[in-house]
């Protein structure tokens, strides 16, 4: 189990920070009667809104009925649950049912325009306590704001995040460097979920966590990919998404796998299907990038998958944890390495016309030395992606960086070539701005199988 779920606060007293909000919730529940307005928890992601609602129910021995606010069927379900005054009907013996409407800010602009109105009506008639949860208070309708009591969850301070991280490390038996925890807490920017995710990424499977580990495995790499995936679902502006795609350490093929792993966050089946279609299209571009060493295609791959997915997601946000691609977990680290190694060995064998086993036995060390001396050259020569390069140089961050740099140089070259070509072939529209059709393959033609090894 990942740590975000494992260390979800079970009781209100475990909730870190926001003590005013927590107190307000407790008093509301203690004094609850039908005259009380429902609570509206709002604020930044990962600050404990959903957890606090469940913790409160747990402390009060209330049963939770969670309904999806943007779901069409919710109205009927709500009526059924909220309309019932019976406090003893529940099999679990819980005294009341707490109705939880998460994502209450996602009602507007839906096909179901009456959603917010229906909820307001039900609130008025409810015999059971209700808690609504939203990220964006301003996205709520006036009517909904008028009938609820707001409870704000603020971003958590780094100094309250650190003790929680220390607690988790202790429970997991990881000795941690205080500087490592400080770095994570700072980087989390008030979001405890992000902090726990980063800690997990950096510390899982280790006995000791040093500040340096955070630097490479969480801060620079994972956390930014978390941000990128989160932003796709938040419906950030296109330009921002494309900028972030350039900023992350990961190459587009890795980003694609993260996005694929994230499709479960799509609001419905139709959106998910659209998401898959975008990824399939992006995958074609990524494949061609490596086949043809034509890195301009990377940009299209990024645009197709990020903007396409953001559009399909409709700005619903991610209301669960963002996980590394499950395919990686399934493969396990060593199996993943093996798969990459096998793919690389096959590729090199085809390119150099040396049988695979001979390559592995007799040439691999020599090739490694060569690659280490001039990695960029061999990235071009062997069409290596970051994972493959990493097999030679054993430095993931550096491998990703080199592959990115090569891509940048190649792109610059392509641009220059296109500019030169232009005066002569005026009629031909700039090829740099449109994804070349398959027929244009001849444009870049070092045919495979002619790599020069030494
Ligand atoms: N205040 C907190 N104290 C302790 N743990 C927290 C706190 N806030 C978040 N967490 C950790 O982050 C996870 C996610 O928190 P939660 O689901 O409550 O966030 P949220 O505010 O509902 O976020 P969102 O707006 O994205 O739904 C929890 O499982 C827990 O591990
Ligand atoms: Mg939540």
Note the main attributes of this structure.
454 residues; alpha/beta; Rossmann fold; 3 domains; five-stranded parallel beta sheet; 7% strand; elongated; disordered C terminus; binds magnesium ion
How would you describe this protein?
The chain has 454 residues and is α/β, with parallel strands linked by helices. It folds into 3 domains: 3-153, Rossmann fold (3-Layer(aba) Sandwich), CATH 3.40.50; 158-313, no CATH class; 332-443, no CATH class. Helices cover 59% and strands 7% of the residues. It has helices spanning 3-6, 19-30, 49-60, 74-82, 115-125, 142-146, 158-172, 178-188, 192-203, 211-234, 238-247, 252-261, 269-292, 296-313, 326-352, 356-373, 375-382, 386-393, 396-424, and strands at residues 39-43, 63-68, 97-102, 130-134, 149-153, 175-176, 208-209. The protein has a 5-stranded parallel β-sheet with strand order 2-3-4-1-5, sandwiched between helices. Strands 6-7 form a two-stranded parallel sheet. Helix 4 links the parallel strand 2 (63-68) and strand 3 (97-102). Helix 4 packs parallel to helix 5 (115-125) and helix 10 (211-234) packs across helix 14 (296-313). It is elongated, with a radius of gyration of 26 Å. The chain starts with a helix and ends in a 30-residue tail after the last helix. Residues 86-90, 108-112, 216-223 and 426-454 have low confidence and may be disordered. The protein binds adenosine-5'-triphosphate (ATP) and magnesium ion.
């Amino acid at each position: 189990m990942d740590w975000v779920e494992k260390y979800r606060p079970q009781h209100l007293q475990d909730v870190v920070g926001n003590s005013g909000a927590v107190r307000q919730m407790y008093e509301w529940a203690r004094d609850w009667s039908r005259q009380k307005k429902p609570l509206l928890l709002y604020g930044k992601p990962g600050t404990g809104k959903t957890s606090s609602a469940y913790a409160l129910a747990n402390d009060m021995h209330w049963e939770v009925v969670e309904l999806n606010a943007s779901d069409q069927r919710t109205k009927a379900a709500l009526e059924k649950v909220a309309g019932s005054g019976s406090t003893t009907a529940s099999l679990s013996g819980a005294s009341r049912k707490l109705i939880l409407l998460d994502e209450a800010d996602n009602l507007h602009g839906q096909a179901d325009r009456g959603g917010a109105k229906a909820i307001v009506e039900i609130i008025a008639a409810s015999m059971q306590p209700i808690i609504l949860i939203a990220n964006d208070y301003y996205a709520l309708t006036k009517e909904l704001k008028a009938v609820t009591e707001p409870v704000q969850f603020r971003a958590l301070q780094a100094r309250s995040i650190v003790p929680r991280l220390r607690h988790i490390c202790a429970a997991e038996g990881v000795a941690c460097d205080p500087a490592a925890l400080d770095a994570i807490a700072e980087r989390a920017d008030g979001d405890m979920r992000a902090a726990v995710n980063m800690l997990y990424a950096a510390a899982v499977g280790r006995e000791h966590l040093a500040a340096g580990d955070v630097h490479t495995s969480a801060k620079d790499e994972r956390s930014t990919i978390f941000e990128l995936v989160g932003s796709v679902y938040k419906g950030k502006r296109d330009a921002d998404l494309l900028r972030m795609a350039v900023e992350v350490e990961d190459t587009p093929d890795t980003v694609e796998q993260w996005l694929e792993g994230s499709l479960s966050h799509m609001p419905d089946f139709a959106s998910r299907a659209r998401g898959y279609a975008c990824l399939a299209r992006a995958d074609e571009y990524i494949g061609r990038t490596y086949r043809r060493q034509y890195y301009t295609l990377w940009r299209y791959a990024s645009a197709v998958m990020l903007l396409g997915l953001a559009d399909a997601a409709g700005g619903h946000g991610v209301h669960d944890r963002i996980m590394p691609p499950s395919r990686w977990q399934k493969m396990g680290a060593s199996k993943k390495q093996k798969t990459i190694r096998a793919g690389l060995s096959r590729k090199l064998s085809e390119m150099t016309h040396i049988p695979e086993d001979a390559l592995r036995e007799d040439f691999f060390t020599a090739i490694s030395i060569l690659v280490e001396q001039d990695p960029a050259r061999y990235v071009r020569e062997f069409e290596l992606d970051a994972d493959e390069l990493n097999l030679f140089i054993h430095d993931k961050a550096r491998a990703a960086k080199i592959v990115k740099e090569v891509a940048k140089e190649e792109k610059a070259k392509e641009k220059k070539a296109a500019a030169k070509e232009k005066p002569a072939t005026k009629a031909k529209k700039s090829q740099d701005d449109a994804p070349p059709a398959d027929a244009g393959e001849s444009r870049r033609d070092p045919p495979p199988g002619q790599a020069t090894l030494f």
